[in-house]
Design brief:
4 copies of one chain form a homotetramer. Chain A folds into 2 domains: 49 residues, Homeodomain-like (Arc Repressor Mutant, subunit A); 132 residues, Tetracycline Repressor, domain 2. In chain A, α1 crosses α2 and α1 packs across α6. The longest helix of chain A is centred in the N-terminal third of the chain and has 22 residues. Chain A starts with a helix and ends in a 6-residue tail after the last helix. Chain A has 10 helices and no strands. Chain A is mainly alpha-helical. The interface between C and D is large, with 54 and 54 residues. Chain D binds a DNA duplex (21 and 21 nucleotides) through α1, α2 and α3.
Chain lengths: 196, 196, 196, 196
DNA sequence: CATGAATGAGGATTCATTCAT
DNA sequence: GATGAATGAATCCTCATTCAT
């Protein structure tokens, strides 16, 4: 029963993601979501009280997927540098291989929906709080330069997002070497005493 | 006459920008643009054949504003590093002080509109071509690391965009010192032989 | 078993009345009736084949309640005038103390539902047939003026309904003296040879 | 221009009245009003922001029609009794000959719409305030019995309404003699010192 | 050039009803 | 009997666009 519910919501989420990537929020009517999900319009309203709530729940669903992918099974025994590189690597990989989620998240952050969410959840963008924590740890332990952690996070995430977008938009085959170079750039720029 | 035309278009552009930042593309009907611009709906259709074209022209209008601001009067006699830093500084300043344009551009890039534009104009994001040229020059002249220029551009622009967004979203007073640190990061990471 | 059935129908009736007074026929979906009655929607459809039938049965349920209240235990040994006054008194008291039924009946009579019912049951309004009979008796026995009995009934019932509505709408505490005055008016106007 | 506006609103009002008498508020979709009025749905929304407001404005439109009909050109030189009879006569005539308005008003008063209106305008029913004033005058000048004016108004209006409804529902040819008898009833009941 | 009334396709949402469990 | 998930027709309303003045 509970499985069924989860399955149906999941099903609606997945098809909504595809449609939104293709046509945007407003190019995606509920009727189309219903058709793709192979349910009646009314059924969607059985699970979500409104389109807005559907979008908002979808946002949380995606956020969780991202976090799980990035922060789960992060070996604590490797050096901070390795972790830094691994996290960056994972964000980027996730974005590139989950283009429907990536596209949705970017649209979401740049839409009025985000304001709604943002009111409750400060530090919203890309659940930066997890990233903030991770980078703050690096600063505290002298792995990273002692600067405003928000600023550092901007460099960290913005670089990954922009790179992913560039790959996806140019519809260019993703070359792992480029990602490795990018990681070098961001590590070189962020690490402690790189001025010596 | 020509001035009048430019003025009226300009007027429509400005009010559209404000409305779109506030309410998004689809929360901004033509009727509202008309009301804010103090003209009749029909008048807008006198200047633009459709809403889509209005948006597309607005995009080009903004693009030009940005380029003018960033690349005009760029003293050729200063060192590449200074120019690198200046360009980064200018992008970020522009974004922060022109939030309606910044918001519009971000919405645009993450909307289906961009696809339309993108078909004609390759290398679309943030008119990366100018930035691409600028960074390519740095690579060619051994100021920057010899890596894929698109990748480098991602780091350059993504960092600025993300930082600007962080300032604007957190509604935090912008601290120039943080921007200076950010510039250090991106320069340290990008410059040639920083591994020596 | 039969008790159970009656109880469940009764329960549904009562909650429907409250909801309809509050929100009207069309502001009262089956789902809400179900929720208030603490049963599933399907259960309602077990007892009533459709919403229309539910409403129609509810109408008959109310009609019977009203008649029982008004005409049962009507002492035949008192004078016609006393009976006339008592009946008027009872209608009004009933309306005022059973506002959910009163409101439902008034909505019903002024809705297209009534047409449906009316086709089968002529003389529908307020089950005027009982009142018609009662007043016809007064006419026949020279207690009341010899005029069209429908016209007389209009004066009789319309006055009571309008008075009740006035009390209920103004949300004014009901003053029995006013009702007594009203009864004087209607009796003075209706009784035989009041012109002498 | 102003005439056109008034004409279009008037046109919408008239067709709405017919439809509502036929099918009730909720059996009358905007699309049908549009079709009957020979305009597009959007046009209705050009004149009225919502269905609710259309209904509310229609209510005021009807109220005014009724008042004009009843209280305009009321010869001040005739006796109070004559005026009393004339006003009663006019209400009833109006109801019977304007069945679409009458039906609308009755539905309105017994619907949740009325609550909305009622909040602003106390003494709402049948714009009783005008009737209240008229009857209060009769009480003050010793033409009518000294009782609560609301109670008196209930008898006055309720009787007329009920009579009109009886005519209209029974689809019986209206016999003016019955109305004259009714007027006798109500006058006999209401006039001063009728007990002597 | 400018206006804004008119259009109607299209979208979000509701709700009476069904039916498998 | 009882449940409530599923259905989809029907409703209200929006808004890009047109065109007569």
């Amino acid at each position: 029963m509970n499985v069924q519910l989860k399955d149906k919501k999941e099903c609606i989420f997945q098809h909504t993601l595809v449609l939104i990537k293709e046509n945007g929020f407003h190019g995606t009517p509920m009727s189309q979501i219903a058709k793709q999900s192979d349910v009646a319009v009314g059924t969607i309203y059985h699970y979500f009280p409104s389109k807005e709530v559907l979008i908002l729940e979808l946002y949380n669903y995606c956020k969780n997927k991202i976090h799980q992918y990035i922060f789960e099974n992060l070996d604590e025994n490797i050096s901070y540098q390795k972790k830094f590189e691994l996290v960056f690597y994972r964000i980027t990989e996730f974005n590139i291989h989950n283009d429907v989620i990536f596209s949705f998240m970017e649209q979401f952050y740049n839409s009025p929906y985000f304001e709604l969410e943002h009111c409750n959840n400060r530090d919203g963008i890309y659940e930066q709080n997890h990233f903030l924590d991770f980078l703050q740890e690096g600063i505290n332990n002298n792995h990273l330069r002692k600067i405003d952690v928000y600023t550092l996070t901007s460099a960290f995430i913005g670089t990954s997002v922009s790179f992913s977008k560039s790959i996806l938009n140019r519809r260019v085959e993703y070359d792992e070497n480029n990602l490795k170079e990018l990681i070098k750039i961001i590590w070189q720029g962020s690490k402690q005493n790189n001025e010596i």
